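Format is sequence with structure; example below:
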Amino acid sequence: MPADPGVVETVALALVTALVTTVGTQWLVVPRLEARKRRIMDVHQARDRFLTEMRHIMGASARLQGHEAPAPDDPAWAPVMHERIAAGRARWVKQLDDATEWLVDNVELYAPSWPTDFLRNMISTYVSNAWAVMLSEREDTRKAVLLSQLTTPVWEVFGSCGWERSPSRMAAAQQQLAAVIEEMEAEVDRQRAARLTG
């Protein structure tokens, strides 16, 4: 039985429409979606790296604070132990330097991805002050203490799950961060005054 001419035209039109839609989607839409997917993945990887570098800072700071270098003339320590402790401390300082360097060099990758000015400003403040600590002439142990104090409130905000970021918790973290920065500035002022008078 021959097909009705209207049915053949309808089927042909449906096939052409499906072909054009499939090819058009593959050529026009899929590449844009793939590019968007890659950009989103890059942002999330940068955020993950930001959190990883903060963990490195907290870990290396804790190790530096927990392993003071013995006095060079301390007879209770063998020379080889002095060398090992000095090498360990140098490695941890390098870890701090590498972590803060990554944070400051890549801030434009992760800071703008957070949804509010408050969060973006907190990141910028933290990163610039952490880098300033590493650039300073402070002793390594003091750097570790300050970096730990700077990182803790920021970690409480960014290392937490989104639902844990209550306004009161974020405000407390901001105040804690501001207090550490104020302490750092007062320390620098005291050092400047001592240089001028001494």
User: Anything to note?
Assistant: The first helix runs from residue 5 to 66. The chain has a mean pLDDT of 88.
